[in-house]
Structure formats: structure tokens, C-alpha cells
Specification:
Layout (H helix, E strand, L loop, with lengths): L2 H24 L13 E6 L2 E4 L5 H20 L14 H24 L3 H4 L3 H14 L1 H4 L23 H10 L1 E5 L10 H13 L7 H14 L1 H4 L25 H10 L1 E5 L8 H14 L2
Antiparallel strand pairs: 1-2, 3-4
């Protein structure tokens, strides 16, 4: 935060606190006694007048205490621009301390499971319970709490894998992440709209859903030129490249004509973030076992 904005925030925060304090005393200036009187504030509404009586002492002192508390809090904790507070507290420091405490408490358990092969861990109910919580905290935002995925995020409970579903492939994915990139119009950037229609019909023909048989037949040559490099000559995909199988009717971005046309025209980009650095190797081993168990 720049110095200007730091000062701006500090002025607003302190101005609010002292403004509240001033408002309290300003409303008491006309009250020379704490005894209730018949004096009114001088206005009425529908014949109803408001007495100009002092605030209850308990309420008055409670209000003052909130102002004092606010100033004490701002002195100890961040709240005034770039000032970190006398305690030098930050959410990052607290998080790191909590992680360190958790590592000390659960580190031995993770280490024990971390030395166990994924296939064996996938049969351990206690390990799977830990893996389920790791999945819920780190993976469910994309893949869903039941790991069934959603548009653009793979279903992890079936046997259809972009990069392979072996323990080694899953570990590789979790450790290093994956970068998916379907270029617009494949490797044929000069593909015309007519050719796009043809190749979409050809892809639909793999599952007998083409709209135009003649276009599908013409699309075979377009597919061979623009799509074979990644999806293979039979459209079965290449795991080493993360290119999906187009013949099994399992779709990441939708399977109808419009969705496939959108994919061909504009491409798709997606990223599976690396978990190394966020999770320990032992935790990744347990998480991999849980993911592996979902389809095995």
C-alpha cells in the first residue's frame, strides 16, 4: 500500500472512532444534569414530543468503552494503513503457526502413511478418511465434494483419465500439476467455418450423433489435418499430452454440437495447480490413494 493510501485509510479509521466519541459528547452539551426533566428537544411528530433526557449511565459508559477498545485494538493489531500493530500480528503468521503446530501433532502419522504404496493405502480405511478431508479442503472446490467434477473439471470417479489413472500418474499430477491447452482450430488455424462444421460433425459421428452425414464424411480429412496430432488418427486421445478420447462419449466441456463447436472455434485452456509446496509429500501420497480409490 502506498504512503498516500496508508494515510488515507488511517485518517478514515481514526476519524470514525473520534467522530463517534464527539457525537456522544455533542448530544450531551445541552444536558446540564443527569436528572430527568420535562424539557423536550423542541420538535414533534404527529403530536409526539421527545424528552431531552440524558442517556442512561450504563449505556453512556458502554459506548465510551467501545471507543477505547477500538483505539487499543488499532494500537495492537493492523488497521491503520501500513502500521502492523505493536504485536506485529498478521494472518500469515497465524496461519504458519497453526500449520507448524499441526505438522508437529500429525507429522508422524503422515510420515507413516507416506512410506506406504498408493495401492496399499487405498485399502486402508483410516488413511482414506484422512485423504477425504485433504480432498475436501484442497480439491473439492473444482472437482466437487463427491469428486464427480463439473464442466471443465474432470470426474475422478470414473475410469476416464486425461493424463492416466495409475498411482504414478496421479502422483505426478498432484505433485507438479497439469496444464491443458486445446488450441483454437487445433493445429489448423486457417480452418474455415465450413470446415469447423465438418469436423464437429465428424467428432459427433464417433458416437453416431452427427447432424449431417455428408459433412461428417468431409470432416474426416479436416480432422486428419487439424486434430490427429493430439487426438490420434482414431480420435482415442493421447494420455502423454492430456488429449482426451473423443470416442468414449465422456466430455469435459459438453457433448452437443454447440459445445463442441465452441471448443473447436476458440480452444480450451485449463490448469490443475501443483500441490507441492501446499501439501507435504506424505499428504500428497495419502491424497493420491484417496483419488485412486474413487475409481478402483
Amino acid at each position: 500500500m502506498s504512503t498516500f493510501w496508508s494515510i488515507w485509510v488511517s485518517v478514515i479509521v481514526l476519524g470514525t472512532v473520534f467522530g463517534c466519541w464527539w457525537l456522544l459528547y455533542a448530544t450531551r452539551k445541552s444536558q446540564t444534569t443527569d436528572v430527568e426533566t420535562e424539557k423536550t428537544v423542541g420538535h414533534s411528530f404527529d403530536g409526539i414530543e421527545e424528552y431531552d433526557n440524558p442517556l442512561p449511565k450504563w449505556w453512556f459508559y458502554l459506548y465510551l468503552s467501545t471507543c477505547v477498545f477500538a483505539l487499543g485494538y488499532l494500537a495492537l493489531y493492523p488497521g491503520l494503513g501500513n502500521f502492523n500493530g505493536l504485536l506485529n500480528w498478521t494472518s500469515t503468521n497465524q496461519w504458519e503457526a497453526e500449520v507448524a503446530a499441526a505438522d508437529e501433532k500429525y507429522g508422524e502419522i503422515y510420515a507413516q502413511y507416506g512410506q506406504t504404496p498408493v495401492v496399499e493405502l487405498a485399502q486402508d480405511e483410516d488413511a482414506l478418511k484422512i485423504g477425504q478431508r485433504l480432498f475436501a479442503n484442497n480439491c473439492s472446490v473444482c472437482h466437487g465434494s463427491a469428486a464427480r467434477g463439473q464442466v471443465g473439471f474432470p470426474n475422478l470417479t470414473d475410469d476416464d483419465w486425461l493424463w492416466g489413472g495409475t498411482p504414478e500418474a496421479i502422483l505426478q499430477t498432484l505433485h507438479n500439476g497439469r496444464m491443458g491447452n486445446m488450441p483454437a482450430k487445433g493445429v489448423m488455424p486457417n480452418m474455415t467455418n465450413e470446415q469447423v462444421d465438418q469436423v464437429v460433425n465428424y467428432v459427433l459421428s464417433f458416437s453416431g450423433r452427427e447432424k449431417d452425414a455428408a459433412a461428417a464424411e468431409a470432416g474426416k480429412a479436416v480432422f486428419a489435418q487439424g486434430c490427429v496430432a493430439c487426438h490420434g488418427p482414431e480420435g482415442k486421445g493421447i494420455e502423454a499430452m492430456g488429449a482426451p478420447n473423443l470416442t468414449d462419449n465422456v466430455w469435459l466441456y459438453g457433448s452437443n454440437y454447440e459445445w463442441i463447436k465452441e471448443t473447436v472455434l476458440h480452444g480450451r485452456q485449463n490448469e490443475m495447480p501443483a500441490q507441492s509446496g501446499r501439501l507435504s509429500s506424505d499428504q500428497i501420497q495419502i491424497l493420491a490413494a484417496y483419488v485412486y480409490s474413487l475409481s478402483n
